[in-house]
Design goal:
There is one protein chain. This protein has a domain at 40-127: Rieske [2Fe-2S] iron-sulphur domain (Rieske Iron-sulfur Protein). The protein has no helices and 10 strands. The protein has strands at 33-34, 43-48, 51-58, 61-65, 80-82, 85-87, 94-96, 102-104, 113-119, 122-128. Strands 1-10-9-4-3-2 form a 6-stranded antiparallel beta sheet, with no helix packed on it. It has a 4-stranded antiparallel beta sheet with strand order 5-6-7-8, with no helix packed on it. The protein is globular and about 45 Å long. The chain binds FE2/S2 (inorganic) cluster. Residues 69, 71-72, 74, 88, 90-93, 106-107 line the site of FE2/S2 (inorganic) cluster.
């Protein structure tokens, strides 16, 4: 118990894909990410189309979002997931996992989102979605 391999998870189609906790891991996600490997609130860092993508499970859904906060590029892979939102660990901006919209300052601009399809127990990331428009805020900022 507690051996060095205890926290490792099997790769996807022979690739090394690791869950993201306090340390980050990366891997291709083209072959799909087994949904059962993602705990509620769990994350995988992957890449598709040459871009980094953070997969986040919330309840029975898996979302794919840009991994960096639009405030000062904070690492959302280390953020807290609450319902359908993820909170940046640096200054606590909050983003919708569904739309990418910045729901809470200090971020004003949305993060990217991708369409995720669930097939055969795996989450597949397909096209990038149109970015949410920044909501007008008091004080004239976007
Ligand atoms: S870097 Fe994310 S809130 Fe500042």
């Amino acid at each position: 118990m507690g051996g060095p391999s205890e926290n490792k998870r099997p790769g996807i189609a022979g690739e090394n894909v690791r869950p993201v906790g306090r340390t980050s891991g990366t891997g291709p996600i083209a072959q799909g990410v087994p949904i059962a490997d993602l705990a509620d609130g769990g994350k995988f860092m992957g890449h598709t189309g040459g871009e980094q993508v953070l997969l986040v499970r919330s309840g029975n859904e898996v979302f794919a979002v840009g991994p960096h906060c639009t405030h000062y590029h904070g690492p959302l892979a280390e953020g807290l997931v609450s319902g359908e939102a993820i909170r940046c660990p640096w200054h606590h901006a909050c983003f919708s996992l569904r739309t990418g919209e910045a729901e809470r300052s200090p971020a004003f601009f949305p993060i990217d989102t991708w369409t995720v399809e669930a097939r055969d127990g795996k989450a597949f990331v397909s096209g990038k979605r149109a970015q949410a428009r920044p909501k007008p805020r008091r004080g004239g900022r976007p």
